[in-house]
């Protein structure tokens, strides 16, 4: 959208947008809305912590936005998996344990907070199969 400067001498004002400008603005907003609301299908193991673009979270990209559930990511609430082996290295969760993003294996969780890289708390195990997502901001260690 452009606001045109009036060319009249000794005048310093701008003309209001016309109908064409408004149509252009509406089209831009509509295009942006379709980009923002497009579904991003994620081809990662169930329960994996991922970043915004759907790639696995890691020491190099620790800004976790959610955990994979049915080809999408879930940002809050609880998820329940029968087998957590691909994510934690064990079939079951440890009830009451806090889980962190692993610094060693991208897209995996650990109960041991990292002592290097970045600490990203992901959530807590409610049962041996059920996990409550509560993603915290990354804490960068020196």
Spell out the blueprint of helices and strands:
Blueprint: H1 19-37, E1 49-50, E2 66-69, E3 72-74, E4 77-80, H2 85-88, E5 98-101, E6 109-110, E7 118-119, E8 121-125, E9 130-133, E10 139-140
Keywords:
142 residues, alpha+beta, 2 domains, 5-stranded antiparallel beta sheet, 3-stranded antiparallel beta sheet, 10 strands
Describe this structure in words.
This protein has 142 residues and is an alpha+beta fold. The chain folds into two domains: 1-38; 49-140, no CATH class. Helix content is 16%, strand content 23%. The protein is built from two helices and ten strands; from the N terminus they run αββββαββββββ. It has helices at 19-37, 85-88, and strands at residues 49-50, 66-69, 72-74, 77-80, 98-101, 109-110, 118-119, 121-125, 130-133, 139-140. The strands form three sheets. A five-stranded antiparallel beta sheet has the order 4-9-8-5-6, with no helix packed on it. A three-stranded antiparallel beta sheet has the order 1-2-3, with no helix packed on it. The longest helix has 19 residues, at 19-37. The chain is elongated. The two termini are 46 Å apart. The model is unreliable at 33-37 (pLDDT under 50).
